[in-house]
Every structure is written in C-alpha cells, then in structure tokens.
Design goal:
Elements lengths: L2 H8 L2 H12 L4 H8 L3 H14 L2 E6 L2 E6 L6 H8 L1 H5 L1 H6 L2 H5 L3 H4 L3
Antiparallel strand pairs: 1-2
Length: 113
C-alpha cells in the first residue's frame, strides 16, 4: 500500500465520517447516504477510495453489500490509524457521528427494498 493512497483516503471529511460510522457497525450504501445526506454515487466513490486504500472491505449478503472496517489490512499503518481515529478526529467529528445516530439506521426503512 502506498502512503499516497492512505493520505488520499484520509483527506476528505466525509470519508473520515464513514470510517467513524463503520467503527460502530457494518453499513450499506443507503445507510451511509442517509447518515451523511449524500448521493449514492458520491458515497460509492468514497467507499471505493477507502477500499482501495485498505481501510474497509465489503461483504455480500444476498442482495445487500455491507461495508465494514477491514479487520486484517495488509498494511499495519491502517490498523494504527483506525485504532487512533477518535484521537485524531477530535471533538468536531464526535458531535456529528454519534453511536446513537448510527445504531438507529435501519436499512429496511432507508433502502428501496
């Protein structure tokens, strides 16, 4: 993994919010869209960048594609960043992405089923 991919993934505040939310629970594109109020295509692009950098993985479950933090990244720096994400993000992000907000996301209501 190149450092430039890691820094690119971390250079956008929405990608940082996605990582913070995925630390709480596995989410689909629709849930992330609802959380961040972004278009599906924008969310998909952010997820692609995070996946290419090694921060997240996708798991297919029937018609769902779930995204989660990569539990075994090839680059140890990824794990270190994820483990210290709250420290580096600071208070600005803690207010916007709360455990309660992420836990309340319900794909059966949000997504087109």
């Amino acid at each position: 993994m190149t450092s430039s991919k890691i820094f690119k993934a971390l250079s956008d505040k929405n990608r940082m919010k996605i990582l913070q939310a995925l630390k709480i629970k596995m989410l689909c594109v629709c849930e992330i869209r609802a959380l961040l109020n972004l278009a599906n295509s924008t969310v998909s692009q952010h997820l692609k960048i995070l996946k290419e950098a090694g921060f997240i993985i996708e798991l297919k479950d029937g018609k769902w594609v779930n995204y989660m933090i990569n539990p075994h990244p090839a680059d140890n720096r990824i794990s270190e960043i994820i483990n210290n994400l709250d420290f580096w993000l600071g208070e600005e992000f803690k207010e916007k992405i709360t455990i309660k907000k992420v836990e309340s996301l319900d794909r059966k209501i949000i997504c087109c089923v």
